[in-house]
Amino acid sequence: MAVATSAGAGDPGLFTPGSVTWQMHGDPMMWVAGVRALYLQALHPRAVRGVTQNSDFRRDAWGRLRRTADFVGTTTYGTTEAAERAGARVRGIHARLTATDPDTGARYGLDEPALLLWVHCAEIDSYLHVLRRSGFPLTDAQADRYVAEHRADARLVGLDPETVPASRAELAAYFAKVRPELAAGPEAREVDDFLRRPPIHPLLIPARELLWRWVARLAYASLPAYAHELYGRPAPAPAAVTRELRATGAVLRAIPARVRWQLPPKHILRAMARLGPDARPDPDKLRP
């Protein structure tokens, strides 16, 4: 059941505090879901070439992750104006960039609708899959509403909302259609290698071994079976992955939200300051 917006004066933004998105995106398992999205996105050869050919992925990967998280935070919890500005920046970047198909030599723009749609669907599928599987309370109807809500930010990056899946069934049909185009080529292997062992300062290596590899391993484990097949590593037992996702979700959600939300750039705290305490993301607001 959606919660009515009773927050104080201020622009509620693109999604508003009454949306499924508002409640979901405050969950700490979004970090695991974001890494899963990277693994999935890398399996589209044309899309991943757009990343590796236009940036030093290994040198700037952390910056790319932060920028993606900032975009999601801004479009979810920022004002409508801030969301529109973020979308305009993304469209501007994509319009300037091209990639080359190594087999044909043909160049193509990164603002091709097919590529934008793949990136969008991989993200939405990952956010929804990881959060639900880790114990976030969401009915099937609410899950469908979440998918439909994200036609709004699909428009921001340059997609026609009418061409974007608006339910779990439409999302599944999209993945079935695009599946023959997917492959774990050299660029996907590069992303895989980075996510498994990202280069960092030597003093931070213990933290990487303790925390990052755990997040990356869990994100990879939650991928669909065909992704494991393409990457060439055995798929873990689904029941074991679900247990670990739920355990991880329980641990992370036990950390007080106000503590978690202090991490920069503090989108949620700024939204609550703008709209009032009733704008606080809370999964209980989604319970029937």
UniProtKB/TrEMBL annotation:
Q: Which Pfam families match?
A: MPAB_Lcp_cat
Protein's name in the database: DUF2236 domain-containing protein
Source species taxonomy: Bacteria, Bacillati, Actinomycetota, Actinomycetes, Kitasatosporales
Q: Which InterPro entries match?
A: MPAB/Lcp_cat_dom (IPR018713)
Where is the ER-bound oxygenase mpaB/mpaB'/Rubber oxygenase catalytic domain positioned along the sequence? 22-254
